[in-house]
Amino acid sequence: MASEKVELPVAERPVEEPTPSPSTEEHEQPQKKSSPLEKITSLFDNWYYAWEILGIFLSGAAIIAICIVVYHFDGNEVPNWTAYAPGRAKPFRLTINSLLSILSVLGSTCAMIPVTKGLGQLKYLWFMEQGRKLADLEVFDSASRGKVGSAQLIWKLRFKHLAVLGGLASLLALAYGPFVQNLLVVEIQYHRADNNALLSYTFSYFYEPINVTGTDSALRFSVEQALKDTSAEWATPANKCKTGECVWEDYYTLAACSRCTDISHLLKRTCTPVVTSSDGFSDTGGCNLALPNGLSFNSTDLAGQHSNPHRTTMVMNTTMHPLVHNYTAPLAFVQSIIGYPHGDSVSNTSKPFIITQDSPVSAHECAIIPCVQRQSLTLTRFTEGTEVNPNLPATDDIIPLMDIIETFDNYTAREDGYVTVDFKDPSENKHISEQQKDKYSQPTILPSTYAGMRNYFDTILNGYVWSSPDATAYSISSLGSAVPSIHEHTLNHTWSPFYCEGNETSQEGVPCGMNKIAAGLTNAFRLWAWQIEDEGSRSVLNGTTKQAEQICTAQWQYVSAPVAVWVLGLALFIGVVIKTRRANIMAWRTSPLATLLLRLDPDSREHLKDWQHMGDAELKAMAQELRLRLQIDESGPRFVRETT
């Protein structure tokens, strides 16, 4: 029987390798020369782990460069780097944050080279250890490509495999850039620039009123603003500070000092039962408060107005005989008695009441006298973390920090009407600066000026406050603003702390109001000298102006993220090298060709014969069931299916 020749299908025919003919060899094209870039790339490809070593080296160098930059500029001014280009009017600018950002991108990119390649190599080592689910291949691939895959890998491995280091490094790389940016922060600091800061002071007050009893309108305004206590402008001495940051050395100036004594223990309370009329618009009884010199609530003219004098809640008087002080012709002298609502509650301060047996009361005797004060003043701008001295308030964002270091209050009212303050002259006082020595004169106040101020205070510090039975507000009987302001702030506890709180004492109520009047007077004296047109006669203290500068401040704790990423990458690289050598396989890393060329055993191919008809979800489900192991023998590496 004749044998028939079997025809193979085209797809199954062996492919014959064409044999080059002599003519073909003669016309064969010369090989294309490799470019320099291809030569460098091939060099790295031929040298195992060259890319990983380069990445570790460059990322470490980037961290070192970042630390050098931060260390160099820590505590220094922010640099201004510019470069001009032809045809461009404005220069190109590079900020220090931009430089750190460039180094950050370089460092994080290079640090991920050993991480991604290490995770790629570990997927082969993972399958060599034992049979694994085919789906694990996708988990490792995803981890080498992104952050979500890294998180999934960490969750799958439960921190029990070398690959976890790569996943952690990949996730920590998210913080690499932000942490580097926070390594160096910029703060506004003020440093001495020049000596163009001017501050007022004076050793005399020679304002000449039009009449004997007149006072300077600026002085009256300053006192009124001090009693209102709603603005900081009156409290800050006249000055010139262009930057809002200035400092002056200690200086002396003519001032007014307040001296108050609590005489509440001298009060005598006399009470009768309170009887209110049926219509509620009149009453009798209550308590009278009286001092030994005759000052009392009954001394007011309420009785002449057919009102109950015991409804008086506060009285201030400048004419009664002193009980504790013995000053000769002080600028101001006042005695006060004040009663408070039951329980001294702020909620009761707007309600009329009658002084009764259990009503809280207090009395003070105060004097304002001429003096000389040694002060220090610093103007600063508010910044976060600024320690604010409560002696003076802030005006906008400028905080005046004043300290009264020393006080000389021994004054003399001479027979000719001049008032002088006994004070050591520059020959004896070592604290007087060279600036003040040149313009020093004995602290003096003009007779007419002094008389005018005394008359002014006799007017504004006399009066009383009473509550009406048919109204919810207090009534004021006073020719000036001092009595109602002191009464309101005292009852409502709304005095601001400056000039009332210090390192040694804390005052409130009437004494606090008198302190503010004295401070207003002091600044009025200095304002008068500040406004003198003749510069040769004007008393001005030169200080130091501080200029704002942007200063770099290092926050070294933020170098932790870049260092952690680098250390994890290095540890992963070393671990991968050791495991690869022990497994005796090549470094395939992230190469897709290695995965493509790995063979499947016949059993696995039979199980996967219909894979081309499956969608993504079906492929994942099948991969969860199929367990493979990477096996290497004389036939080469291949995936072998495990059935157990």
Automatic annotation (TrEMBL):
Keywords in alphabetical order: Membrane, Transmembrane, Transmembrane helix
TM region positions: 49-72, 92-115, 556-578
The protein's name: Uncharacterized protein
InterPro entries: DUF3176
Keyword Transmembrane helix: yes
Annotated spans, Disordered: 1-35
Domain of life: Eukaryota
